Automatic annotation (TrEMBL):
Coiled-coil zones: 12-39
Keyword Coiled coil recorded: yes
The name this protein goes by in its record: F-box domain-containing protein
Keywords assigned: Coiled coil
Keyword flag Coiled coil: yes
UniProt organism field: Favolaschia claudopus
Amino acid sequence: MLDFLAADRAFLAEKDVEIQELEAQVLALERSLSSLRAARNIVQQRLHSYKYPVLTLPNEIVAEIFLHFLPPYPEVPPLLGDLSPLHFTHICRQWRDIACNTPQLWTAIDLNPRNVDNLPITLEGTLALTGLWVSRSGHCPLSIRMGSQHDPMSILAPLIPHCHRWEHLTLMLESTQPLSSMQGSLPLLKSFTVRLGTSISDDEVVNLQDLPSLSTVFLDAFKIPHINFPWSQLTSLTLSWIYPEHCMSILRKTTHLERCILHLGLQDEPQDDFVDLVLPRLRTLEVEVDGDVYVNIIQCLVAPALRYLRMPESFLNPWSHPFKPLQSFISRSGCHLNKLQVTGAYVEVEKIDVSDSD
């Protein structure tokens, strides 16, 4: 009996020693853990107080950086994706606030959004994004581009109430209905690009006269309906894939034109009723032709202020006196060309003498 009691007492004494050793180790670990926690808290507080240099910039500078990231106005960025101004709102709260309160970021609107991650953008999504752009753009002028749409009127609907802010407009249309809906005043519109599909009837009439600021028009169409632009106030005009008779009819109305680019389409029969076309302020003329065009515009044109001429070789006479048409044009106009470019020429353009001679 006494032997059992002695053994138990020895066992307890041994365990007490082990417990004391472990408690000492735990105490040491707790002290180490407390020290580590204190060091971590100091570093954490230092990190919390640290600001990245870019986040210390004034909001105005950050907004200017955002604007330089986007394509220059009036070019339009995508509505979605990394190149969209919407991307700035996903970085941090500070940048989101700056982006949402910088109206100039939202003034160029692409109504033909590209797919993102191969997912199509629905009509509802496009309308929602368009409404967001319009609301964030404040009272700034707008640049709008719309591709060929099945329902262009629905796409344009959120923007019609803001037509007084339209400054640059690009439309690709299979119907003139959207043009007809714009017959009110567009006081800020400076440039208008219209690409018309082949289904447009050439007997349609569209009146777009209340455009007091319009100076630049780009018209691309095989068939030209009766679009009544304020032609006389234009200073820059591009006519693409247009029949020569339509071209001449329009040019006669553009008396203040300074820059003109023409891409003339095919013409079935020669036109003999063209007389001198006088464009007194024209300084730049670029002409391209598609196939056999019977109207040589430099034989009809009088342009005393012309300084740059780009024309196809077919406007010359390659068989006899190749430069006589050009010399006749210069003599008739009394212009002083600074630069002449002949496309598709078999001759050294730099050696052409464009002075008046027999």
